[in-house]
User: Which sequence fits this backbone?
């Protein structure tokens, strides 16, 4: 039986493409740049491996999970690592241990023109590119095959990504090779569209009449709790800030609304996220300087042993699990009610028209930002009706 996926039950992890020895599956982009498997009927032999390897089901493998995860507030002792990371630099400590074993670390970085992709790192300098948030679905490309090759060669490997990506990799690699594979997933709100991100950068370059040389989805110089996107252009020393739509659900992949991993039985050894709500815990002191703190969930026995090895590099405190439950540890994100209309308009009319229509660039966007910052809550609804917010 060959894999039969639609947009609500495919996360684009590439496990099916990676396992097909006949090269009968190719990941192809839709109108927003999300990748889906396309089967070449002339090459497919109906072996069924693609269907078997797919992890995007409610009954994904949970056999290695603890009965309940162990929760920690964590910050790296090295403040330089904290200041150059998105939250508390927990990922740096975990990945440093793997690199010190002579292993390989896989995380999300950039290709040409800030295209978001998964990359392999064997040095700390290479690994540092994985720091910071990238609010776009990454292109995994041939990463799964590279990970399996490293494991067969005896390397310790860390793969970090969204829970659907770690689940896909674990299923593809198989139980026999998983001993030296360490998995970290993020508390994921959902993955925005790659093509819209690419078009947005082109829009900014056209607007500034300069090419981009750096991007920052959440500029920590404004403080850990801020959500400010900054962009630096060639021939310009200053960063410019723009308001974009990363924090809405109109750009998310359809499958994010039916994600089976939004619970406490995570498909990874470790789960990492920003520790929002830390003020309600006895670790509140780690947030007082607005430098950042990581929430870390230890999901497996392997994850517990891993954390024990690196505790000397961390400030950490056990946290009652019930206190630190975030929305996406309970339920999938609800898609924007106009998500389908947005995609249809984007495919037909392109970036400028669609983004202006839905209020993410142009005068609607400016009014939204003004209202958010300066208008009292009691009269915001009147403004929203006036400009027909989407």
Assistant:
């Amino acid at each position: 039986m060959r894999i039969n996926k639609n947009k609500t039950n495919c996360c684009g992890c590439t496990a099916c493409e990676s396992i097909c020895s006949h090269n009968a599956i190719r990941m192809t982009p839709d109108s927003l740049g999300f990748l889906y498997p396309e089967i070449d009927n002339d090459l497919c032999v109906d072996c069924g491996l693609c269907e078997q390897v797919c992890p995007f089901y409610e009954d994904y493998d949970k056999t290695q999970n603890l009965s309940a995860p162990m929760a920690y507030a964590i910050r790296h002792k090295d403040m330089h690592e904290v200041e150059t990371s998105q939250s508390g630099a927990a990922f740096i400590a975990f990945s440093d241990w793997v690199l010190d074993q002579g292993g390989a670390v896989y995380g999300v970085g950039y290709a040409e023109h800030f295209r978001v992709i998964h990359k392999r790192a064997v040095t700390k300098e290479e690994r540092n590119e994985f720091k910071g948030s990238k609010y776009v679905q990454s292109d995994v490309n041939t990463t799964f095959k590279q990970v399996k090759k490293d494991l067969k060669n005896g390397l310790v490997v860390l793969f970090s990504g969204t829970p659907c990506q770690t689940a896909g990799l674990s299923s593809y690699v198989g139980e026999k090779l998983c001993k030296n594979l360490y998995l970290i997933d993020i508390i994921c709100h959902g993955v925005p569209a790659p093509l819209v991100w690419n078009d947005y950068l082109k829009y900014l370059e056209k607007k500034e009449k300069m090419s981009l040389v750096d991007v920052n989805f959440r500029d920590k110089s404004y403080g850990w709790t801020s959500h400010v996107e900054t962009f630096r252009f060639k021939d310009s020393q200053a960063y410019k800030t723009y308001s974009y739509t990363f924090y809405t659900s109109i750009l998310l992949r359809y499958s994010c609304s039916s994600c089976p991993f939004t619970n406490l039985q995570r498909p990874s050894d470790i789960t990492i996220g920003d520790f929002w709500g830390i003020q309600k815990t006895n670790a509140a002191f780690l947030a007082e300087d607005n430098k950042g703190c990581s929430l870390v969930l230890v999901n497996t026995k392997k994850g517990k042993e891993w954390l024990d090895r690196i505790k000397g590099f961390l400030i950490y405190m056990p946290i009652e699990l019930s206190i630190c439950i975030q929305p996406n540890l309970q339920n999938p994100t609800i898609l924007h009610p106009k998500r389908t209309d947005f995609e249809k308009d984007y495919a037909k009319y392109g970036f400028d028209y669609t983004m202006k229509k839905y209020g993410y660039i142009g005068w609607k966007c400016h009014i939204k930002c003004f209202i958010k910052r300066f208008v009292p809550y009691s009269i915001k609804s009147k403004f929203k009706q006036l400009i027909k917010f989407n």
About this structure: The mean pLDDT is 92. DSSP finds 13 helices and 13 strands in the chain. Residues 194-208 form the longest helix (15 residues). Residues 9 and 56 are 7 Å apart (CA to CA).
